[in-house]
Design brief:
This protein is α/β, with parallel strands linked by helices. The chain folds into two domains: 203 residues, Nucleotidyltransferase, domain 5, CATH 3.30.420.10; 94 residues, BRCT domain (Rossmann fold), CATH 3.40.50.10190. The chain has twelve helices and 14 strands. It has an eight-stranded mixed β-sheet, with helices on both faces. The protein has a four-stranded parallel β-sheet with strand order 12-11-13-14, with helices on both faces. The radius of gyration is 22 Å and the shape is globular. The protein starts with a strand and ends in an 11-residue tail after the last helix.
Length: 340
Amino acid sequence: MDFVAIDFETANHRANSACQLAAVVVRNSQIVDEHCWLIRPPSNQFSRFNIAVHGIRPADVADAPKMSGIWPELQPIIQQQVLVAHNARFDVSVLLSSLGEYSIACHDFDFHCTRALARAAWPGRPRYGLKPLGIYLGLQFKHHDALEDARVCAKIALAVESLMGESVTLETLEEHMGIRRGHYRGGSVVSPRSKGTSGSSNRTSGSSGDGSRPGRSDRWGFPVSNNAKPLGSVCPETVRQSCVDKPLSGKKIVMLGPLRGLNMEDTQRLLTDLGAQLETQISASTNYVVVPGISIADAQQQVDTIKAHTAQSGLPAPHIRVLSERQFRALLPGGAISIQ
């Protein structure tokens, strides 16, 4: 099996307060790589309860990067990978909320929960927490250390696989256990569930179920934020170095002004390097209209007019999205890092 096991520790009850993150990479049913980061949460506010659980204190993360600084390292590790976590809905919520705090859009992904897998593999056990399952499998580990927990999570998944007597794919394991994987798509999270069970009760749109707003995403999957944090200048080299591919490939974009800190020529060069096809006028084939530093009302009016004319012609309505600079930069790996 191939997957990446993740685990978060948080500083307080808020889902955006990640203070430690680990990612354990599994390839061909073997652990091949491990990563762990301390994270400085917003305002560096810790609750006494959380400190008692994991032992991480504000002083431990005072010089650690924020989640926005870790994302360029994390994204290539989890891009196009199935994520696995214990009580996965919690970790997925923390991931999306911590990125949303910095207006960073997360790519779509699938995920599994080892608690759900363990229930299917070993029915009738009294407890399915990470520690009881680790003890059951004979694993020695320090609970609530993100790296050790992520490692045990990966080993639980591999132990479930071993019940089949051979190395299999996640798809084969899902079919055998009768479990559908969860997923994050365009701002909505659907939890893993038994096949044949409706997922409607497990679905949210931009909500983690605990009162937080994980991706702060609109229905298009773009982050929205009510905070007033100023937007710093974009750093073209940071954006280019953070990209593992061309994130704007095939997208037709109308820029109504340069990105902050750049002139129009440098803005166009950067977007072309990222695969964008730049247009000078809004049309029915336009994907994004970006309006840096000015009101989006006029651009939205033009888009609405085009949509109305298209509808009158009996053609499908075009999917043109008007974006602020903050929303647009959230699409670019490294683009939101310069938010100050």
